[in-house]
Amino acid sequence: MSYYRYWGKAKPAGDGAPYHLLPYHSLDVAAVGWQLLSPERALTQRMAAQLDIAPEALRRFFVFLLGLHDLGKFSRAFQGLAQSQENEMVPALPRFAYSQRHDRLGALLWQECWMEWLKDGVLNWPGSPPGRRERDQLSRTFSTLLTPMFGHHGKPVAGNGLNMRDFFGSDASGDDVQAASAFIAEWCRLSEVPWSQVQLLSPAWHEALKPLSWQLAGWAVLCDWIGSHQGHFPYHDRPMPLAEYWALAKRRAGEALTAFGFGQPPVPVAYAGMASWFDGQPVEPTPLQHQAEQAELPSGSQLFILEDITGAGKTEAACILAQRLLADGHAEGLYFALPTMATSNAMYARLGALHRRFYTPASAPSFVLAHGARELNEDFARALGHEQPVDRNYQPDEYSASYQCNHWLADSRKKALLADVGVGTVDQVLMSVLAFRHQSLRLYGLARKVLIVDEVHAYDIYMQQLLQRLLTYHARQGGSAILLTATLPRQMRQSLADAWSAGLSVESAPMLEDDFPLLTQLFREGYQEVPVAARAEVSREVQTEWLSTEEDATAVVLDAVAKGQCVAWVRNTVDDAIRAFEAVRGCHPAPERCLLFHSRFTMADRQQREARVLERLGKDSTPEARQGQVLISTQVFQESLDCDVDLMVSDLAPIDLLIQRAGRLQRHQRGQREAPRLLVLAPEWTEAPDADWLQRFLPGTHAVYRDTSLCWLTQRVLRQLGGIRLPEQARALIEGVYGADIEQVPAELEQSRLEHSSKQRKDAGLATYHALPLDDGYLSGNQWSEEVEIGTRLMDEPNVNVVLLAPAGPGRLRLWHDGVRHAAMLSQLRLRESQAKNLAALPADYQPAWEALQEREKSLRFVQPWLVENDAACHYDTRYGICFGREDSADD
User: Fold this and answer.
1) CA–CA dist 470, 464 (Å, integer)
2) What is the DSSP letter of 406?
3) Are 88 and 180 in contact (CB under 8 A)?
4) Parallel, antiparallel, or unpaired: how do β-strands 677-681 and 723-726 relate?
């Protein structure tokens, strides 16, 4: 057969076969797809139900299409990339230049030839050729079906604008198009394509297919990755019957999937109470956890919104629901999405081995941490370096399948959502609805997951819009989600419910319940809002008092120190924190008990500071360690560390942030203490503030929170209520700020409110513009333009990673934290672009050393170098972090 003269993969050099024939590579990839779409898999059954087709027929049909993913390699232009010394292979033709990728050439070949293949019997089409109107529908449906296959390198491609004669040719040795036709005909016969069971001419079937095409694209990417693994699919350059090779490829694919952890999904076990998680130790569930145990789980997609105060056990309640959803067949795995890397690390450590309790012991589910600096998480590094439970490594040079799976999955954050259980930043899932290469792989992984999003209130309008787009898609694909929050405005809860309802194609239900805590559940047949009792141990009343000068705040801190108390002062900017630290430390009787904590330290110094904070103020800190401790921090303190203090001072901030900060005030039981007090540094109260009311007193805070009406409304509601009583006043506090109409805002602050509203509309519009139109199907469009800059977060200006360097001799450089593991990452910090521009440029005589360092440390490729001692204006101090020569009011 002529198709045996085309190679699909080639070695630059080495022993063994120099080529892997194109039909064999095509079948390798198809065989992986065959195993992944086995009819008993939940995802196969769900897709089959959505397309009204039997699971086995769905498998045969999509696997046939997957086998066409590399049709573009039949191009003589592609074949010329590896010159053959053997007469059996087609020779290169000098007139063809490989100027287009093979994936796009495959789309071109199909686009130009599919109708002829249908008429000539190549596709084994049943019955007579379709008429003109039917051809139009068939063309649209085939485009939606084949684009995911040709887009197996991570983005959709199209053959538009290309000419077949520029890439496909013929000579005495063979004809490219004829060879492709022969392969398709034989592959079609071998696949037994169930054309009669696929409603290709139905517009309704095509509409149902469109959203599923994103999962198909991710499936194609995964199949191509695994099917290209030489260890499992060795090169074969001698002809053998396709039927014989197909049987061999399916066996190899099964072995490869087992090795990579995809052989069989982990088997869930029914929830049997929280005691089953902790080796039978009795555990009394909180009211929210009890409701999670009792909630009915109808069939189909489920959305839960869990609203309760910090310490109420929301994470465990989510785990209860997740295990129940797993056991009922709603999903095969979990993904925990959190707002920051620090909270992701904390969740990873918190889950520990808990996730394994959701499955049978023999399942050994893979568990992956997914964010940009996960290599620095020692828990994750240890998990990769040791075998999983009940799955031993067999010999020193023969690793277990789970060990290999963990390393393979951990190799790229793109693959993290493929793990059975993933923990990471929310960015990893939001990237699935943006035009990032391989975003479809994320959607494919998410289709098998219960999505759990923590601190859902913490996202700005841009991220909220992206999250809503994702929730709509996840509901449409039959997925389930659990959202956790302590301070969710009513309008945001309604928007989340609306997004989910849109995915179910049902009328959105009005969220009317004002009780707090609250469990909201949405499903296809309806919804329920269930008020939940508060957990007595975490119900709290925090008295708020007001400070009008930084000197007053310093005096309060020192007075608490004199009483032996520990104190935190949370400031809104780094420069304000540094100034407060200097003032307090200069008067503290034991200055070593003062600690400054913000984000402008190198990663190494920040890790050390986090460890010190936990040692001095963490859950297990001793009275001796806590006595007289003062922590001056920015908002990084409230975001991630499980600490508590006796007294807290805070700069004025919007109410949700003050509630979050107050959550670190006397968080743990420590015997008899004074009633908790939150002292807020704010301008003198006035019913009629002027436009500069906040800027004049706290310029840094004004730069961070441009809508000054939020701070004024926060001050008003706290004065009206006299403090923070949770859970009784949670709704009143949040809605008093975020539910306020503009008529309640003083006239002089209306402009900032209007400007903020305008920015919110703009940001929401940007999210809509950047988000992929998932209902339209996996098709090429403007969103995929290389010129369009997209991201999961909007910032006033870009961030820049800066690596600190020191001289190691004339013209030589060393990393700031040289000689430790991950030194290249630990020597970095992140700055705003305008801040990074203030740093001195690297001298020219160090440029060769910098390039050599980049070559050795790949993580430095897109990092700005800073030779610290060469900078006269800026410096770095392990006590203060990076210090600039001028004031900077950036929020960190």
Assistant:
1) 10
2) H
3) no
4) unpaired
Residue 537 to residue 457: CA distance in whole angstroms: 23
| Mean pLDDT across 303-331 | 92
Of residues 414 and 766, more confidently modeled: 766
CB 102 within 8 A of CB 73: yes
681 forms bridges with which residues in the sheet?
Answer: 547, 651
Nearest to 815 by CA among 787, 790, 852: 852
Which of 844, 789, 769, 834 is closest to 811 using CA atoms?
Answer: 844
Q: Using CA atoms in the order 750, 751, 756, 761, what is the torsion angle rounded to 10 degrees? A: 100
Token output for 157: 């491609």
Q: What phi, psi does 627 have (nearest 5°)?
A: -60, 125
In the block, which residue shows the tokens 């329920």? 528
Instruction: Please state, in angstroms and rounded to a whole number, the distance separating the CA atoms of residues 761 and 753.
Output: 12
- List the 367-370 sheet strands across, edge first: 367-370, 421-425, 333-338, 449-453, 480-485, 303-307, 518-523, 526-531
Task: Report how far residue 580's alpha carbon sits from residue 808's, in angstroms, rounded to the nearest whole number.
Answer: 36
**Residue % of the chain over a pLDDT of 70:** 90
φ, ψ at 725 (rounded to 5°): -110, 120
| Nearest alpha-carbon partner for 309 in 455, 528, 513 | 455
At 344 the pLDDT is 63
**Contact at 8 Å (CB) between 3 and 180?**
yes
Q: For all residues of the chain together, what is the average pLDDT?
A: 88
List the structure tokens of 409.
């999955």
pLDDT of residue 393: 29
Answer whether the bond into residue 689 is a cis peptide, omega within 30°. Answer: no
How many alpha carbons fall within 13 Å on the CB side of residue 758?
Answer: 7
Q: How far apart are CA 473 and CA 50, in angstroms?
A: 14
Q: Which two tokens stand for residue 807?
A: 């001289």
Of 11-15, 574-578, 712-716, 735-739, the poorest mean pLDDT is in 11-15
Partnered with residue 680 across adjacent β-strands are 546, 650
> pLDDT by residue (tens digit) across 169-206?
998 888 999 999 999 999 999 999 999 999 999 999 99
pLDDT tens digits for 487-524?
Answer: 899 999 999 999 999 999 999 989 888 899 999 999 99
Contact (Cβ atoms closer than 8 angstroms) between residue 139 and residue 206: no
The torsion angles phi and psi of 457, rounded to 5 degrees, stand at -75, -15
Contact 502, 494 (CB under 8 A): no
127: left (phi over 0), alpha (psi -120 to 50) or beta: left
Report the candidate in 421, 36, 17 with the shortest Cα–Cα distance to residue 226.
Answer: 36
The interaxial angle of helices 655-662 and 730-738, nearest 10 deg, is 150
Those residues with Cβ within 8 angstroms of residue 443's Cβ, 6 or more apart along the chain or in another chain = 214, 215, 217, 218, 432, 473
At 889, is the pLDDT very low, low, confident or very high (cuts 50, 70, 90)? very low
Positive/negative CA dihedral, 393, 395, 396, 401: negative
CA 482 – CA 648 distance, rounded (Å): 32
Note the helical H segments in 691-749.
Answer: 699-704, 708-721, 730-738
Distance CA 184, CA 195 (A): 15
Determine the Cα–Cα distance for residues 67 and 79; give it in Å rounded to an integer: 19
Q: How many CA atoms lie within 13 A of 480 on its CB side?
A: 27
For the record, the structure tokens of 398 come out as 């023969």
Which of 290-294, 546-550, 590-594, 832-836 has the least mean pLDDT? 832-836
User: Is pLDDT larger for residue 806 or for residue 342?
Assistant: 806
Q: What does the H/E/C string look like for 465-488?
A: HHHHHHHHHHHHCCCEEEEEECCC
- pTM of the model as a whole: 0.89
Q: How far apart are CA 227 and CA 9, in angstroms?
A: 11
Q: CB of 838 within 8 A of CB of 884?
A: yes
Condensed to tens digits (0 to 9), the pLDDT of residues 809-820 reads 999 999 999 988
300: three-class secondary structure by DSSP: coil
Retrieve residue 752's tokens. 């900032």
